[in-house]
Amino acid sequence: MSPNLVFVVTIGVLFTVGVYLVLERSLTRILLGIVLLSNGTNLLILVAGGAAGAPPLIGVASDRPMSDPLPQALILTAIVITLGLTAFLLAMAYRSWQLHRHDEVQDDVEDRRIVRLAARDERAFEDADTESDGETLDEEAASARDETDEGEAFDGAPSERPPPRTDHTTREEGR
Amino acid sequence: MTDWGWLVPLPVVLPLSAAGLALALYRRPRLQRIVSLATLTIVAVVSAALLVIADSGPVVVEVGDWAAPVGISLVADRLSALMLTVSSVVILCVLIYSLAQGREDGERFAPISIFHPTYLVLSAGVANAFLSGDLFNIYVGFEILLAASYVLITLSGTRERIRAGTIYVVVAILSSVLFLVAIAAIYAAVGTVNLAQLAIRLPEVDPGVRLVLQCMLLLAFGIKAAVFPLSSWLPDSYPTAPAPVTAVFAGLLTKVGVYAIIRTQSLLFPGGRLDDVLMWVALATMVVGILGAVAQDDVKRLLSFTLVSHIGYMMFGIALGSVHGWSAAIYYVAHHITVQTALFLVVGLVERFGGTTSLDRLGGLAKMTPVLAVLFFVPAMNLGGIPPFSGFLGKVGLLEAGVQLGTPTGYALVVGSVVTSLLTLYALIKAWNKAFWQSPPEELPANRVPMGMVAPTAALVVVSLALTVFAGPLYAYTGRAAQTLQERWPYIEAVLPDGMRGEGESQRAADDAEVGG
After folding, report:
1. N or C: which end of chain B has fewer CB within 10 A?
2. Where are the stretches annotated Disordered (chain A) (predicted)?
3. pLDDT at residue B1 in the model
4. What residues make up the domain containing B449?
């Protein structure tokens, strides 16, 4: 079975235009693109069902082969779903226009902010654990040295040391 | 044997009817609440019953008694029953949570008259997608749950939600169009959309055509499951919705996509020709997702990124293509649904208590609300894969299956998943340190957190712990489910006993017509 060429070309055109429109920024154009894409898909299902034939009813005599009723049922379902979604998208475009006086799809501000932070090489949030407190590593080590490990630091035995800083606990108590 | 078939359609039919009832009762919020609560409780009980019944073989119902390849069949096998049970428990917990939040906030939370019907429709859509034995009916199930989710994500139409909702809706619609194109192509190739018949007929199709069909289905489901590189819509859109909505989305919607991938990969396209590609995709999903999470300063966004990252684990299990891999993946899905939902609910409580979810402004919560601290800590450790929680068990299962495969890609994935799990732990511990242990930059408002919201969250945490306690029987169950998936014929035989048609009324009618005509 070779499909009807007119259908195939129409499907191609619908998909081309649909994809182009979906790539736009304005929600109304995206909506039009989606409508075209869905109609292209519906035609595709119709083509998938093979050539048209006699009504698919048992007991009705006809010399032609019956047409396949299943794709038509699928298309009907798909049309109804698309109708509902189109209405919803229209409402959303209108709401967007109410709020911003335009219906353009906006970028994610939070993403942009994180990218800018990364460009400046900054941390995402202030964190006392990772904040430097002006001490160098040597100073920290010196202040952390305790009396029990005199001269034994290099014999491989791990010595117990108090934690270098106890900032958050002390600060919370002072609050 | 008693015929339990009548139970199968209930998880779809009950919520749909209740949605209509709830809509009709929009002036009676009390009644509406009772209707939703009762319905979802019954659905949870029915699903649990199906879980037990399906263990002795798939339960099949032919809707309207139309015989299988023409009519639509609903099939509850082990995999669907397990997914259904976990999701209905989660849905019920989130409903109770949102009831309490609705009582507290009134219309500020959500227009109640809209929330309840939509939520019920969402639940029906999820159940339909899990139970359907027909590819087009899976599409319908997806559309039901997506249409409901569009409404929920744009509730009350604020500036931020409309922005996030636009991205979500457009991406979801595009993935649905792709799915529909795939269905059309499959129908053109083999002339059926019944899963069991597809399983019989697809292997006869030219391998090249079959590969195209497989790719198209994977693409459509990949967008829904948020698999890298099709995942960037998720962290943009989920965090802006109200806490219970985000929680149920994070727990369920992506997992419906994962379920569809498992089902089609195992039943329709055995042989795993795309397994290598899927493995690299899984690795990229895990690593890229978690690197995104590390950079975030908002807990909700952080969790959304971990969600993407952990979808990678499930893809890892699916891509292994072995019984072990699938079994671990199914267990991981069950674990992840409960844990991720619980985490989002806790963050909702934190937001309520501290008025923000930004790590810049949170602090000292462990001292102020020890309950929230425990509720956050347990699922966070669970997600990070600390023994003895279920996250650890799921990951060990995946690692074992990966090592068993023994190829370089398998080992790469094993290393990748360990690194990802460590990075998850890093991201969550960083958030925990800042939000719960360090002193806040400014005093937090410390609003009252109602008991009605804490209780369902705690219940979910307990469920996630139960997954650890009952890990033995559960893992055996997922193992049997994976075994059935591998064998394929139990599913096919249950739907099409003679390999041709189901047992519905229409078959008898057709026979009669042939005899009479």
Report:
1. N
2. 124-175
3. 46
4. 274-469
| Number of independent structural domains in chain B | 1
Q: In CATH, what class is A5-54+67-110?
A: mainly alpha
Residue B436 in domain: yes
For residues B331 and B397, the answer to whether their CB atoms sit within 8 Å is: yes
Does the pLDDT at position A34 exceed 80?
yes
Q: Are B162 and A95 a contacting pair at CB < 8 A? A: yes
Q: What is the dihedral of CA B261, B265, B269, B272, to 10 degrees?
A: 130
Are the C-beta atoms of residues A94 and A31 closer than 8 Å to each other? no
Determine contact: A70 vs chain B, CB below 8 A. Answer: yes
Identify which of B177, B236, B513 has the shortest CB distance to residue A58.
B513
Q: Establish if B423 belongs to a structural domain.
A: yes
The encoded tokens of residue B266 equal 């195992």
Q: Is the pLDDT of residue B87 over 90?
A: yes
Q: Say what the ipTM of the complex is.
A: 0.85
CB pair distance less than 8 Å for B183 and A74: yes
Amino acid A82: pLDDT: 92
Whether the per-residue pLDDT at B401 is higher than 70: the answer is yes
Please name the residue that has the structure tokens 């099939």: B75
Asked if B179 contacts B217 with a C-beta cutoff of 8 angstroms, the reply is yes
Q: Looking at chain A, which residue has its C-alpha nearest residue B432?
A: A127
Q: Which helix (H) or strand (E) element contains residue B143? A: helix B135-153
Query: Is the CB of A124 less than 8 angstroms away from the CB of B296?
Result: yes
Tens of pLDDT, residue by residue over B197-233, are: 888 888 888 989 999 999 999 999 999 999 988 888 8
Rounded distance, CA B103 to CA B111, Å?
12
Check if A96 contacts B (Cβ < 8 Å). yes
Nearest chain B CA: its distance from A153 CA (Å)? 30
Q: Where are the domains of chain A?
A: 5-54+67-110
What is the mean pLDDT of the segment spanning B343-365?
A: 85
Which chain B residue has the Cα nearest residue A107? Answer: B163
